[in-house]
Design brief:
Elements: H1 2-25, H2 28-44, H3 46-53, H4 59-72, H5 77-88, H6 95-110, E1 113-119, H7 125-139, E2 143-149, E3 156-161, E4 164-169, H8 170-183
Parallel strand pairs: 1-2
Antiparallel strand pairs: 1-3, 3-4
Length: 184
């Protein structure tokens, strides 16, 4: 628990420093785009996640890998330098937390609320539009949706806004029914 708190604190400090630098340079959105791309790369590649978080690789190797990735992906120079600094300070494992903390800072700065929508099957444009409209009404702010497919929920939706999770998935309903039947 204490390690999680320390990791969150470190991630938030690095994210705040990056955000402040990006704000001064007028490149908040460019850096955010780079971090979103990097987040997707980390999600898609177990090898990249392992390279970033494993203590087997030296900070120098992690730095070279992340900076090379940033250059190849044509990231903003500020993002590339930040990745180098993060690894130089042996904080590469904090990268996912830094990305999440930066996103929160960006959302607070722009007034846009981030929401993650999880469904069992891909949602159509009309369905996403209806969800966006319902969230706009409920939150009083313009939501930025990130749709994800997870067949394990069987049906329905899960919508996460900040730390709140609205779970209307079929799996959760079946689990609740199963629990209720066991208690009866």
């Amino acid at each position: 628990m204490a390690d999680d708190f320390k990791a969150n604190e470190v991630s938030e400090r690095y994210a705040r420093a990056l955000f402040d630098l990006a704000d001064e340079a007028g490149r908040i959105d460019a850096v955010r785009g780079d971090l979103k791309t990097l987040k997707a790369m980390l999600a898609d590649s177990a090898e990249l996640r392992r390279a970033v978080t494993s203590p087997v690789y030296s900070a120098e190797d992690k730095g070279k890998a992340l900076v090379a990735l940033a250059v190849k992906s044509k990231f903003d120079m500020l993002t590339a330098k930040f990745l180098g600094l993060l690894t130089q300070n042996q904080r590469a494992a904090a990268l996912p937390g830094v990305i999440a903390a930066y996103d929160k800072l960006w959302a607070a700065h722009t007034g846009i609320v981030s929401a993650e929508v999880v469904s069992a099957q891909p949602l159509s444009a009309a369905q996403l539009k209806n969800i966006r409209s319902a969230l706009r009404t409920a939150l009083g702010a313009d939501p930025e949706l990130e749709a994800r497919v997870d067949p394990s929920i069987l049906g329905g939706l899960k919508v996460k806004v900040g730390s709140k999770l609205f779970d209307a998935s079929l799996k959760t309903k079946l689990d609740t029914l199963k629990f209720a039947l066991k208690r009866a």
